[in-house]
Predict the structure.
Amino acid sequence: MIGVDVFGKPLDFKENKDSTVRVEMHRLRKRLAVFYEKEGAGHKLRIVVSPGKYATDFIVLPPDNGLATPKPVSPATRLGTHRVRLTLVTAALALTCFAVTAVAWRTSLGRTGPSHGSTAALLLNDEVHILAGYTGSTWVDASGRRWQGDRYYQGGMMLPGVKAPVPPPPDRRLFQTMRSGRRAGDLTDDGGTFAYDIPMKPGAYELFLYFADPLRESSQLPDRQDGQNLRHFTVRVNGEPLLNRLDVVADSATAAVDVRAFKDIRTAADGRVHLQFVPDPNQPFLNALELVPSPPGHANPIRITAGQSAYTDPQGRRWGPDDYFVGGGVIANPVPAAAGLPEFYRVERFGNFAYAIPVPPGAYGLTLHFTETFFSPSADVCHGPGCRIFDVNCNGASLLHDFDVFAAAGGPFRPVTRTFHGLRPNGQGKLLVSFSPSVNYGEVRAIEVLDETP
């Protein structure tokens, strides 16, 4: 960890490509050897950096080591010797102390105030967005959320995450680092508990937990298995169970990643939200977490478009970029200026695809936004009614059957919406909205989910 904690290298830096640590430690090792071969030859207490290691050791040579009595030196030489000795000792001690301090600082990064008792000294957060296992600078995603490096944790260790999940999630960066119970050759080995103690202002919060299990890519997987039933762990909030024996691979189903949402999360008596990730019996892990303010007892509205950037509609409502999708593609077809189609509808997600939208327990309203811009009068292969027909289901229940956007809207470039009420999440905490085509491809322009829980 010297490369990360002392020289400021990223968590995944490779020594065969970046030799900073090796070169600097070699220089220190060489200077120490020269010093003890010459003017420091008579010293029994020595500083040693063993080859292949990056830690300093202090050793005492035995009395019968066979060292010759050092020759007398002139006052000028003695002064120079003392200066060299002081420089080397200071450099070695400074490096050691700096490394220890840096590791301690990394471990406690972001934790302020006392660990127990009064909250007066705490720096309380309005909201947090944390990338577990990440030590770099703040990163801003397409929605404008500011993701910070790992902080407020106790226990566990930082590890690389899944670099390129398949199928690709909306944002891979959320899953490229992780905090894990411990490093192990077998990812299903028992591992230790780790925790987050996050100081927050009083109020209600919505909690999002992000997971992508490396087991999906592991060479340890038996034939014909995808990693289900190989890792289980429990998540608690303020001492109460939140997820019991979570199996991330099973929970994410056909998606490569898993996001879970919980509402009405509040601080404990000490002004912190306490999250524990406990082996049950296998090592737990986490890729990212969020705590965002929400109305008491309710989840925040979810509004997403098929586009790649956030959008604010004329009513002042903010729509985020495409998120929670599983499969499909996106396309923006030409739209005549005379059609007057709002920018909101210019991009579509199409194909045989789904949205796995994480929501807390409760009842929800779902509004789907459509328009037909591909099978328009100018299309070469087909245009008009009957060119695109598909079904829409939510958690296995039919919402739309043989839906034809062109026919429903009464023509091309005309927005049309369909709204459904009383939908509840499945056992994995998702509204799994699937678009299954029977003629050409399914499509959607935007999705809105509102908490209708009384």
